[in-house]
Specification:
By secondary structure, the protein is α/β, with parallel strands linked by helices. It has 12 helices and 23 strands. Helix 7 packs parallel to helix 9 and helix 9 packs parallel to helix 11. Bound molecules: shikimate-3-phosphate (S3P) and phosphoenolpyruvate. Belongs to the EPSP synthase family.
């Protein structure tokens, strides 16, 4: 499916944020390992979260996905035995990384694999840590990458984790921690990438009754005997997905309100709002609603987005419409995502007329007169959504294979149509 995008006049629209993908993955896992029944309310129903649910069912967890809720009778920390099982996680990095540790909880041999791009997304530091904690983990293809086969016992102990490529390596072990035979202690020698997602992990673990010891982002501990308890849990709104709506105001001018967002959220992509404010937008929050207004031209900034990786592309497209250049740092690990996002973003902005320079851990966007192009997102949902929003400011844009947004935000195109923007 291709979507053609014309230039939009100044906007005055209200959107609802979809549920958080990261929170939904984690609630599914915690509920699966919990003692007792959980009801997950307003889960994100998207390709990636469905992959996690399907994988948990394959591991023997009774996951009942109903109408806007998921009911799970938790296993109480253990997983049932059975034949070896293979989990195909598509290109859901969160699913594959987090479930790699859940696989160690299972008494069955578990193979974790994915699509072609997933097999290019690194896993080495997580495998090394799982081996140190009792896992017998084998690479079935290229060393350091999926597919892997996980056997052994989650005995626990101490492991050092290099999370410079992905915070998910740490989140994975922590989420499974309550099911280890002994204490789990993780030492993190250097600042993890996307560190805010570790706050999301700890938030969900504690919401389901687990206690997590930590020293900032350098050390994490889950004590033997820690357990999850089933509960009713409502998934908060997704600030990463909401960024595209906020960017509509920044790029087209006018006002966008987005509701269903938690004002106390620990999601790192709230930082996108700080960036918009620094560039000249008016940002206001009231209850569950955030309002962004852009009246005058925006000016470029220099900002570290290392803890807000999923809104780097959204910020880059906004930056291309500002009056002066923007430099975004902390972007080196974006090469490991659904695509090499810094390269893809640079190439497409340059095709549109912007000046872009890329360094080891930064991207600088120098605004210039822009023209619409046809963008092939190469199956990356965030490339599709960020350039769609830029198209509303430039016109003459076509997004190829637009259904790829289903990975995280299946309602994206309908939301723009419902607001009269398509
Ligand atoms: O743990 C999570 O839910 C996620 C962590 C981040 O990945 P990295 O930690 O690999 O940067 C983020 O980009 C991804 O969309 C979701
Ligand atoms: C990188 C992302 O997700 P994942 O790591 O789960 O593939 C994303 O949603 O941008």
């Amino acid at each position: 499916m291709d979507v053609n995008i014309s230039r939009s006049p100044v906007v005055d629209v209200t959107f609802s944020a979809p549920p958080s993908k990261s929170y939904t993955h984690r609630a599914l896992i915690a509920a699966s390992l919990a003692a007792g029944r959980s009801r997950i309310c307003r889960p994100l129903d998207a390709e990636d979260t469905r992959l996690t649910a399907r994988a948990l069912r394959s591991l023997g967890v009774p996951v009942d996905w109903g109408d806007n809720e998921i009911v799970i009778d938790g296993t109480g920390g253990a997983l049932p035995g059975g034949d070896p099982v293979t989990l195909d996680l598509g290109n859901s990095g969160t699913s594959l990384r987090l479930l790699s540790s859940i696989a160690l909880v299972s008494p069955r041999p578990v193979v974790l694999t994915g699509n072609r791009r997933m097999l290019e997304r690194p896993l080495g530091p997580l495998v090394e840590a799982l081996r140190a904690l009792g896992g017998e983990v084998a690479y079935l293809g290229r060393s350091g990458y999926p597919p892997i086969r996980v056997e052994g016992r989650f005995s626990g102990g101490t492991a050092a984790v290099d999370a410079s490529m992905s915070s998910q390596f740490i989140s994975s072990i922590l989420m499974a921690g309550p099911s280890a035979d002994g204490d789990v202690e993780l030492k993190v020698p250097e600042m993890p990438a996307s560190r805010s997602y570790l706050d999301v992990t700890v938030d969900v673990m504690e919401a389901f009754g687990a206690t997590v010891g930590r020293d900032g982002y350098t050390r994490f501990r889950v004590r033997r005997g820690t357990r999850y308890t089933g509960r009713e849990y409502t998934v908060e709104g997704d600030y990463s997905s909401a960024s595209y709506f906020f960017a509509v105001a920044a790029i087209c001018g006018g006002t966008v309100r987005v509701n269903c967002l938690s004002p106390a959220s620990v999601q790192g992509d709230r930082r996108f709002l700080d960036a918009l404010e620094a560039m000249g937008c008016l940002v206001a929050a009231s209850g569950d609603t955030v309002t962004v207004t852009r009246e005058d031209e925006l000016f470029g900034i220099t900002i570290d987005m290392s803890s807000a990786p999923d809104t780097v592309q959204t910020l880059a497209v906004v930056a291309a419409t500002a009056a002066t250049p923007t430099t975004i740092t902390g972007v080196g690990h974006l090469q490991y995502k659904e695509s090499d996002r810094v390269r893809v973003t640079a190439e497409n902005l340059q095709r549109m007329g912007a000046g872009v320079s890329v360094g080891a851990d930064r991207i600088t966007i120098t605004p210039a007169p822009l023209h619409g192009v046809t963008v092939n997102p190469v199956d990356d949902h965030r490339t599709a959504m960020s350039f769609a929003v830029l198209g509303l400011g430039v016109g003459g844009m076509t997004i190829r294979d637009a259904e790829c947004v289903g990975k995280s935000f299946p309602g994206f195109w309908d939301a723009l149509r419902g607001a009269g923007l398509l």
